[in-house]
Amino acid sequence: MTVEPCLIIDGQARATAARFDVINPATGVAFATCPQAGAEDLDDAVAAARRAFPTWAATPIEDRAARLLAIADAVEARKAEIIRLLSTEQGKPMAGGAAGEVGAAIMWTRFTAGLRPEVELIQDDATARIELHRRPLGVVASITPWNHPVLIAVWHILPALLAGNCVVIKPSSYTPLSTLLLVEIAAALLPPGVLNVVTGEGAMGQAISGHPGIDKIVFTGSTPTGRRIMANAAGNLKRLTLELGGNDAAIILPDADVDVVAPKIFAKAFGNSGQTCAALKRLYVHDSLHDALAGKLADLARAAKLGPGDDPESQFGPVQNRAQFDRVCELAADAKARGGRFLAGGEPLSGPGYFFPLSVVVDVTDGMRVVDEEQFGPILPVIRYHDVEDALARANAGENGLGGSVWSSDVAAATALAQRLICGTAWVNDHASLSPAAPFGGAKQSGIGVEFGLHGLQEYQQVQVLRVAR
Ligand code: NAD
User: Fold this and answer.
1) For 20-45, how does the pLDDT look when each residue is reduced to its tens digit (9 = 90+)?
2) pLDDT, tens digit, 9 for 90 and up, residues 305-358
3) What's the mean pLDDT in 72-95?
4) Contact by Cβ (8 Å): 284, 364
């Protein structure tokens, strides 16, 4: 990375007068500073992207794809550096989470480079030949969250570029540095202005979503912020892809094998310390299995090793920031006050950093905050049910609809039930597994549009019908 992390605008590193602290969540102490972009930096980034757009859009897709592959190679060559930075600012263990995230980012980049939109033939007869083409939109702005900053940046930037757009990205102010490094690496392989990065908090996000020079916003973050972006983007009818919050339910049918499903459910609920949009966040367990499964999950939670990201023994890191840590503590206290019983965890750890133990709580139900609200942290509520139709109704209640799952030894029965979940992805005997070929997005207020594969690519394109008269 450049000596001090810089913005990248029009292919140039740009220092700023103002800088803000970046906190290591394992210590709660600042370990670096980040340039703070201003309104002029944003205007310059958008203007550079607009200037670069006509040439980039006219560049053959094979050439654009070759640049994407070169970016994947360059990121791979510097992955140790990115992994360390990601782990330090985000908190996830280097060996597991951070290496996994950077590896997935490289894999996703290579897969995306292979996508090719096809021209669709609509009609070809004596009156006309009608074809459906897809054109790039122009300048795409990406706004990303702090939970998987490198991977989500790749999910936004690479398909936008492949489709022929130019990009301005703004990472979360909690985890900006790994994105600055990623953009520094990628922008060096692209014409000036094709990829730019600015920084800042909500006010910068607000300025981006209202900016008249931006044609589309791709946003991953919370539902309330998504609503603000949508309202603010109306001025020039920006296209939107919104990947928002989730409160995914899993339903465990009475014939599930507790020994088989327990470790899988544990991994899908607590991966990244629960800070994943499509993590399993509400576990509905049939009465007959409830105590056995909750007990096994609690055993696994107690055995987990929490620690700083640079300790090779650490399996799970801290909560990423103070505000989220306080929220997790609040949800745990509320659950206890309302009769919830923690079989594991339930209290923040003493000592430095934002460590909250992996926690399993029973005797909780719908109507309590820990069940109704997205925890986005390491607490799993286990909810007893008797009647599967009632469990399904509860799983489908609420404003979220990102993902959901059904677990059973009877795959056909589980598959039938999974299709009645109101959500963007329904898993059977799995949860939160994503593939670069399969569209991913939310139902209800978990989002608008999808990412990944050809369906995801189309979100960065405008349909153009070409009609040639005969
Ligand atoms: P957040 O909404 O607080 O912030 C996300 C980004 O938006 C940050 O870059 C932030 O600076 C920016 N922002 C804040 N206010 C803004 C405004 N008014 N206008 C424009 N931008 C603004 O979300 P977070 O706390 O960083 O991330 C956690 C949330 O993200 C959770 O709800 C989680 O479920 C969701 N998430 C969803 C997905 C998905 O794919 N559906 C993936 C990851 C995270």
Assistant:
1) 999 999 999 999 999 999 999 999 99
2) 999 999 999 999 999 999 999 999 999 999 999 999 999 999 999 999 999 999
3) 97
4) no
Instruction: Among 277, 399, 459, name the best residue to mutate to test ligand 1's pocket (greatest count of ligand atoms within 8 A of Cβ).
Output: 277
Answer whether 248 contacts ligand 1 (Cβ < 6 A). no
Task: Please check whether residue 350 is in contact with residue 357, taking contact to mean a CB–CB distance below 8 angstroms.
Answer: no
* Angle between helical axes of 149-162 and 99-113 (0-180°, round to 10): 10
Element (H, E) at 362: strand 359-362
User: With 0-12 CB in 10 A as exposed, 13-18 as middle and 19+ as buried, what is 58?
Assistant: exposed
226 lines ligand 1 (CB under 6 A): no
Q: Is the pLDDT of residue 1 over 50?
A: no
Look at residue 242 in the predicted model and tell me its pLDDT. Answer: 98
Query: Rg of the chain's alpha carbons, rounded to an integer?
Result: 23
Answer whether 432's CB lies under 8 Å from 276's CB.
yes
**pLDDT the model gives residue 4:** 79
pTM for the whole structure:
0.97
Three-state DSSP state, 304? coil
Q: Which atom of ligand 1 is nearest to the CA of 402?
A: 41
Cα separation of 174 and 180, whole Å?
13
Q: Report yes or no: 15 and 37 within 8 Å, Cβ to Cβ.
A: no
Q: How confident is the model at residue 96 (pLDDT cuts 50, 70, 90)?
A: confident
Tens-place pLDDT, residues 234-251: 999 999 999 999 999 999
| Rounded-to-5 percentages of helix, strand, coil across the chain | 40, 25, 35
The C-alpha torsion from 79 through 37 and 276 to 1, rounded to 10°, is 10
Contacts of 408 (CB under 8 A, 6+ apart): 252, 253, 255, 256, 414, 428, 429
* Cβ-contact 281, 269 below 8 angstroms: yes
Which whole number is the average pLDDT over 273-285? 97
Which of 42, 220, 276, when mutated, tests ligand 1's pocket best, judged by the most ligand atoms within 8 Å of its CB? 220
Instruction: Give me the amino acid identity at 351.
Output: G
